[in-house]
Amino acid sequence: MTNVSGRFLGSSATSLALFLLIWMIQDQGWGADLDMEINLSLFSLRSDIITTCMIVVTTIFSPLALFIYSGALVLILFLYNKRFASVVLIISMVGSAIALVIIKYIAGRIRPPHAFMQIPGYSFPSGHATSAAVFFSFLAWFAGGTIRSFDRRLVVFISCSILTFLVAVSRIYLGVHWYFDIAGGTFLGIFWLHLPLSFSRFDSFL
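Below the sequence we write its predicted structure tokens.
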């Protein structure tokens, strides 16, 4: 196993462990006070302008939208003979989506009351946070391996980090998720990206 593969395998295992820890915390109700405190803090910042911006963010970076963007990106990667990267993105997006359906059903966490918009389904983990973590972390990883300029790589990394953060905040701000839903979804997304990346030693076979 190469050093790169080992690091990704280690980070995927760590992300999975943190996700399971967060799941246990929210399931036992240990983080209920923090959940409520963070939600109320963001609710206090509500204004027409911020609400409009949050709705735009949560819409254009919804799981469905990110799936569409990912599908287009996979086609582009195949055209440019980046097969390993395309396979990683496919496994990450599809795997995380399947995991979300199963875990949401098992966890069965109810969404916060007084939501700005009514969303069907359970709350934990956040599908938006999971998909955003997969998609934008993938972009940051791909840019790190293909863009030579450090400054440009840094711009991509910061931009992806900001967008992931904004998607996460938008879900709490709009009252459709608790903080631990977002945290759990983020670590679940990182796990599903880093898991296939841990097989990077097979890049030459694709």
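The chain has a mean pLDDT of 91.
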